[in-house]
């Protein structure tokens, strides 16, 4: 869960920066999020490494590390074999003083997966040398992958190139199943005919309108299907997402038999289309 938390934190921050910086390329935005996710994990391990080096310069351990080889071997002669191994590995890694040596030392000790102390007093599962590196790779991919998706999503939001600002979501109403194809094709007569059949209109329709251009500019129209499973979890499926020409919002709203909201001022109480 820890990498997942970091991934969402990096992705959330990246999304905010993407929106504010007006990054409009989903690919570039996603790649930047991916790089930031990788950097976050590397920084986490690097700061652990710096903290570790500081600890190794204190007290008895610092004296042991600074011993000559002969003094060191003589000093640990009566120590248990496993403890000797730990001391040798630690001494070698600290003397090298590199980040790579530190990570190799951590892999020698092995990443340990275990429950919290409150839920279990038993030891955890040690992943071993190779397993530790595999875990770190998976950890990086989880964080970077989540950041990639969130930042890419933010960069994919509708944008008005003429006014250089993001379009604002506003609800237009709802459409029935027969009207989805008509909206996707931009066929207003077919949409009116579909709505006249009397089938229940349960699919939310929303528009992304530029606050500067208003209805006089291009408008992105989205139709979604919202469902709830047995566990109460909500999911949204995008059925249509098309760009309509200027001055089409009022005609579209009329076909849906709903009055359009004021461009750039969506009703805060209404449900807006999800990105």
| pLDDT averaged residue by residue | 84
Question: Which class of secondary structure composition applies to the elements?
Answer: alpha+beta
Kindly provide the radius of gyration, computed on alpha-carbon positions and rounded to a whole number of angstroms: 29 Å
Main sheet: which strands, in order across? 5-6-7-8
Termini separation comes to: 25 Å
Characterize the main sheet. Answer: 4 strands, antiparallel
Shape: elongated
Please, how many helices? 10
Order of helices and strands: HHHHHHEEHEEEHHEEEH
The total of beta strands comes to 8
Outline the low-pLDDT stretches: 259-275
Helix content: 40-55%
What percent strand?
Answer: 15-25%
Task: Please characterize this protein's 3D structure.
It is a single chain. With 275 residues, the protein is an alpha+beta fold. The protein is built from 10 helices and 8 strands. The longest helix is centred in the N-terminal third of the chain and has 31 residues, at 26-56. Mean pLDDT is 84; it is low at 259-275.
Question: Which secondary structure elements does this structure contain, and how are they paired or packed?
Answer:
Elements: H1 2-21, H2 26-56, H3 59-66, H4 69-75, H5 81-96, H6 99-109, E1 112-113, E2 125-126, H7 128-155, E3 159-160, E4 165-166, E5 168-175, H8 177-185, H9 188-195, E6 203-209, E7 219-228, E8 234-244, H10 249-255
Antiparallel strand pairs: 1-2, 3-4, 5-6, 6-7, 7-8
């Amino acid at each position: 869960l820890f990498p997942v938390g970091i991934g969402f934190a990096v992705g959330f921050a990246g999304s905010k920066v993407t929106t504010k910086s007006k990054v409009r390329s989903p690919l570039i935005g996603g790649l930047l999020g991916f790089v930031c996710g990788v950097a976050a994990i590397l920084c986490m391990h690097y700061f652990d490494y710096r903290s570790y080096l500081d600890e190794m310069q204190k007290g008895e351990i610092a004296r042991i590390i600074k011993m000559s080889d002969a003094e060191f071997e003589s000093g640990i002669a009566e120590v248990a074999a496993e403890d000797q191994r730990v001391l040798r590995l630690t001494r070698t890694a600290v003397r090298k003083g590199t980040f790579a040596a530190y990570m190799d030392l951590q892999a020698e000790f092995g990443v340990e997966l275990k429950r919290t102390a409150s839920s279990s007093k038993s030891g955890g599962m040690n992943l071993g040398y190779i397993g530790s590196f595999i875990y770190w790779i998976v950890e990086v991919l989880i964080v970077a992958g989540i950041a990639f998706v969130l930042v890419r999503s933010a960069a994919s939001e509708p944008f008005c190139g003429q006014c250089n600002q993001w379009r604002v979501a506003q609800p237009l109403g709802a459409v029935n199943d027969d009207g989805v194809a008509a909206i996707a094709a931009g066929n207003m007569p077919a949409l009116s005919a579909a709505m006249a059949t009397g089938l229940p209109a349960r699919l939310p329709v929303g528009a992304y309108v530029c606050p500067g251009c208003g209805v006089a500019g291009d408008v992105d129209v989205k139709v979604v299907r919202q469902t709830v499973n047995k566990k109460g979890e909500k999911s949204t499926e995008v059925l249509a997402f098309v760009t309509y020409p200027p001055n089409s919002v009022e005609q579209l709203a009329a076909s849906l038999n709903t009055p359009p909201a004021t461009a750039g001022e969506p009703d805060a109480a209404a449900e807006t289309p999800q990105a």
